[in-house]
Amino acid sequence: MIVGVCRIALLLPGCDSLKEKRSVVKRLLGRVRSRFNVAAAEVGDLDSRAHARLGFATVGSERDIVRGVLERVIDFVEEQYLGEVINEEIEVEHYGS
Known about the structure:
Number of domains: 1
Shape: elongated
Number of helices: 2
CATH topology: Alpha-Beta Plaits
């Protein structure tokens, strides 16, 4: 079993309140979940209006496929123009025999 995890840090300069930020984040997470069938959540900077940290996870049988899905998630987030991606990380691990 191959598990892939992706963390994305976003800058959301147009958000003036936490309510507005959460609306943007919720919309983005929903789009990613429905398009890529990955687990997705806001995982950091919860009290910041201008920053968000998002986490995504997927499981598969081949390392290249798992990494490819997460790279496409990053590209998709950037294409949505809802915020600026300021950092991204992908980790792919093998579990089991």
